[in-house]
Design a protein that fits this description.
Distance between the termini of chain B: 53 Å
Order of helices and strands of chain B: HHHHHHHHHHH
Distance between the termini of chain A: 21 Å
CATH architecture of chain B: Orthogonal Bundle
Low-confidence stretches of chain A: 363-367
Mean pLDDT of chain B: 88
CATH superfamily of the largest domain in chain A: P-loop containing nucleotide triphosphate hydrolases
CATH class of chain B: Mainly Alpha
CATH superfamily of chain B: MetI-like
Strand content of chain B: under 5%
Structural class of chain B: mainly alpha
Number of strands of chain B: 0
Number of helices of chain B: 11
Oligomer: heterodimer
Helix content of chain A: 10-25%
Mean pLDDT of chain A: 86
Number of domains of chain A: 2
CATH class of the largest domain in chain A: Alpha Beta
Largest interface: A-B, 28 and 22 residues
Chain lengths: 367, 238
C-alpha cells in the first residue's frame, strides 16, 4: 500500500495532497494542471517534496522531516509515461528484460512469457522499437515496467497520446494486467471513462488539492458540488446484467433493475455483470414514459437531490432498486418539468453516445 | 626539380617516417584522451557542480589561445625544469623532446573539439530515457553505461575523428613544447614547415601536403558516414 502526504510549491502552484491506495487500480483523476502528474513524480522519486512523506508497504521512500530520500532506482516503482520512452538502441526483448535484470533475484516473480502473452507482443520481441506503432510501443512499455517486478505500477496517462482505436485495444489489456498480476496500479488520467472502467478507487485532484476520494461512482457523484465548468466529468456507473446479444444489429441488451440499457458491441457473456459509464451531460429526463422515440435506454427513478450552478442544474436520480444516475439539465428545463426531490422521472440516454471505453466487464474489485 | 610528376608520388624514407610518426602521435593522443573527453563531455552535458563554468572555460582555452602559448604553458608545467617535470622524470615519465610530449600537446589542442562533439550528442539524448532507466532500477552509473554511452557513440566517434584530424595537423603547440626533431617529434606539419625552409624542398612539402589533405578528408568522410548510419539505426532517417 502506498501512503502519500506531501506538499510542494512550484512557482504560484501549490500542491498539498494526501491519500492511500489499496489493491487493484487507484486512479488519480484531474484536469491538466491539477497536480496529478506532479504527485506521480513525487511518488516515483523524480521530484522531492517540500514537506511530508511517501511510504510504500511500510517502507519510507521520502520523509522530509527525517531527511529520508530513496533514489528513483531503488524504489522499485514501475512508471509508464505518455510516450513510451523505449530505448531505441535495444531490441524489444532487451527493453522488456532491462528492469528485470536489476530486480533482486528473489523478487522476479513476474514471468516473461505470461507478460508477453497477456499484452499480445510475442511477435514483436525481436523487432527494434523504432519500427513499432504507437499502440505497440505503449504495450511494450507496460510490459517493460511490469517485468521489473515493481511493488507499484504508475501509469501516467498511458493512453493520452493514442487515437481512439488504439485506446480501445489497450484498455482491456490494462484490465488483464490488473486482474492477472498482483501489482497495485496508480492510474493517472483525465478521461472519466478510463478511470471508471479501470479503477476500484479514485482520488480526484483539483488545483493541487484532493477534493474527493472513494469508490469511483461515489467520488464522481461528489463532483456534483463542483463548479459547472467541470460538468463534463460528472458521470455515473451502472451495473447491469447481460441479457442477450443481438447479433443482427451488433447490440447487447443489459438488464438493470430500473430498466433496459442497450449498448453497441459486446459487453460479455449472457448472465455476466457489465459496467456502463454514462456522462451526466448525455442524460435526458422526462416525466412521462416517452413513446416513439429513438432513444432505447430508459431507466426509471426518482429525484434525490438537485444542485445549481448558474444556468446548469445537476440532478441526482435514485434509480429504481439499484444505483444512482447523474443528469445535468438547464435550469429552465428543470422549472418546466417542475422537478423536485421525490419527483418520479424517466432517464434516457442514447446508445450511440456511449463510447466503447464506457462499457466493460465488472472487475473483481467492484461488484 | 627534375621529373616533377614522378617525384610527386614517391615518398622518401624521411617523409614516411614523418607520416608514421604523425599517425602514431595522433592515434595515441586521441585514444589516451578519449576516456577523459567522454567523462568531461558527460559532466558538462548532464551534471551540475560548482565550478562548472570554470571547467568549461579551461576545456575550451586551447581553442582560443595562440597554440604557441599553449605549448609554452606545457613546457612550463611538464618540461624538464617545469612545475611537474622533475617529479615526472623521477617516476620515469619524460615528455620534453619526446614523441610522447608531442602526443600530450596534440591531445590538449584537440580536447576542445573532442568534448564539443561528444557534449552535443550527450545533450541530444532524451532525458526521459534516463528517467525510464532509473525507474527500472538502474542507478546513474548503470544508466550511463547502458543508455547514455551507447546512444552517444556516434557523437563519441565523430569527436574522436575530429580530435584525430586536429592532432595530425597540430603544429604550434607541438613545436614549442617538444621542438622539431626528425624521427622523434617531427610530424607531417613540422616536416612540411622544415621542407619549405630549405631550397628544393617544395616537392617533398607538396607530397606531404597531399597526404595531409587525403588523411583529413578521409576522416571527415568517415565521420559523416558514421553519423548517417547511426541516425538510420535509431530510426531518425528513412
Amino acid at each position: 500500500m502506498i501512503e502519500v502526504d506531501v506538499r510542494l510549491q512550484v512557482g504560484a502552484f501549490s500542491l498539498d495532497v494526501a491519500f492511500a491506495n489499496g489493491a487493484g487500480v487507484t486512479a488519480l483523476f484531474g484536469q491538466s494542471g491539477s497536480g496529478k502528474s506532479l504527485t506521480l513524480s513525487i511518488i516515483a522519486g523524480l521530484i522531492k517534496p517540500d514537506a511530508g512523506y511517501v511510504r510504500l508497504d511500510g517502507d519510507t521512500l521520502v520523509d522530509v522531516a527525517t531527511g529520508v530520500f530513496v533514489p528513483v532506482s531503488r524504489r522499485r516503482i514501475g512508471l509508464v509515461f505518455q510516450d513510451s520512452n523505449l530505448f531505441p538502441h535495444l531490441s524489444v526483448k532487451q527493453n522488456l528484460l532491462y528492469g528485470r535484470w536489476f530486480a533482486p533475484e528473489g523478487e522476479r516473480r513476474i514471468d516473461f512469457d505470461a507478460v508477453v502473452e497477456t499484452l499480445g507482443i510475442a511477435n514483436l520481441v525481436s523487432r527494434s522499437p523504432t519500427r513499432l506503432s504507437g499502440g505497440e510501443r505503449q504495450r511494450v512499455a507496460i510490459g517493460r515496467a511490469l517485468l521489473s517486478c515493481p511493488r507499484l505500477l504508475l501509469l501516467d496517462e498511458p493512453l493520452a497520446a493514442l487515437d481512439m482505436q488504439r485506446k480501445l485495444e489497450i484498455l482491456p489489456l490494462i484490465e488483464r494486467v490488473r486482474d492477472e498480476f498482483d501489482v497495485p496500479i496508480i492510474y493517472v488520467s483525465h478521461a472519466v471513462e478510463e478511470v471508471l472502467r479501470l479503477a476500484s478507487r479514485v482520488v480526484i485532484i483539483d488545483a493541487g488539492r484532493v477534493t474527493s476520494v472513494g469508490e469511483p461512482a461515489e467520488a464522481f457523484n461528489r463532483i456534483a458540488g463542483a463548479p459547472a465548468a467541470n460538468r463534463f466529468d460528472r458521470s455515473s456507473i451502472l451495473a447491469a446484467t447481460v441479457e442477450q446479444t443481438s447479433v443482427a444489429h451488433g447490440l447487447t441488451k443489459l438488464n438493470h433493475p430500473a430498466g433496459t440499457i442497450w449498448v453497441a458491441g459486446s459487453a460479455g457473456n449472457c448472465g455476466s455483470l457489465a459496467r456502463v459509464i454514462v456522462k451526466a451531460t448525455d442524460v435526458i429526463l422526462s416525466r412521462v414514459l416517452p413513446q416513439e422515440i429513438s432513444t432505447r435506454s430508459i431507466l426509471s427513478g426518482k429525484v434525490a437531490n438537485i444542485q445549481f450552478d448558474g444556468a446548469i442544474a445537476t440532478i441526482e436520480i435514485e434509480l429504481k432498486d439499484d444505483g444512482r444516475l447523474l443528469a445535468t439539465i438547464t435550469r429552465g428545463a428543470l422549472e418546466d418539468l417542475a422537478l423536485k426531490p421525490g419527483s418520479y422521472v424517466y432517464a434516457l440516454f442514447k446508445t450511440a453516445a456511449l463510447d466503447e471505453r464506457s462499457i466493460g466487464m465488472a472487475s473483481a474489485q467492484v461488484e | 626539380m627534375p621529373d616533377f610528376p614522378a617525384a610527386l608520388f614517391e615518398l622518401s624514407p624521411a617523409e614516411w617516417t614523418a607520416i608514421r610518426l604523425s599517425l602514431r602521435i595522433a592515434t595515441v593522443a586521441t585514444l589516451a584522451s578519449l576516456p577523459f573527453g567522454i567523462l568531461t563531455a558527460y559532466a558538462l552535458a548532464r551534471c551540475q557542480f560548482p565550478g562548472k563554468t570554470l571547467v568549461n572555460g579551461m576545456v575550451h582555452l586551447p581553442l582560443v589561445l595562440p597554440p604557441v602559448v599553449t605549448g609554452f604553458v606545457l613546457l612550463m608545467l611538464l618540461g624538464r625544469k617545469g612545475v611537474f617535470g622533475p617529479f615526472l622524470a623521477e617516476i620515469g615519465v619524460v615528455f620534453s623532446f619526446r614523441w610522447t610530449g608531442a602526443a600530450v600537446a596534440c591531445a590538449v589542442m584537440a580536447f576542445p573539439l573532442m568534448v564539443r562533439a561528444m557534449r552535443l550528442s550527450f545533450e541530444a539524448i532524451d532525458r526521459r530515457l534516463e528517467l525510464a532507466s532509473e525507474t527500472l532500477g538502474a542507478n546513474r552509473i548503470w544508466t550511463f553505461f547502458l543508455i547514455n554511452l551507447p546512444l552517444a557513440v556516434p557523437g563519441i566517434i565523430v569527436g574522436a575523428i575530429l580530435a584525430f584530424a586536429k592532432a595530425l595537423g597540430e603544429f604550434g603547440a607541438t613545436i614549442t613544447f617538444v621542438s622539431n626533431i626528425p624521427g622523434e617529434t617531427q610530424t607531417i606539419s613540422a616536416a612540411i614547415y622544415s621542407y619549405t625552409q630549405v631550397p628544393g624542398g617544395d616537392a617533398a612539402a607538396m607530397r606531404l601536403t597531399i597526404v595531409a589533405v587525403f588523411i583529413a578528408f578521409s576522416a571527415l568522410v568517415a565521420s559523416e558516414i558514421i553519423q548517417w548510419r547511426a541516425a538510420k539505426r535509431l530510426g531518425n532517417v528513412e
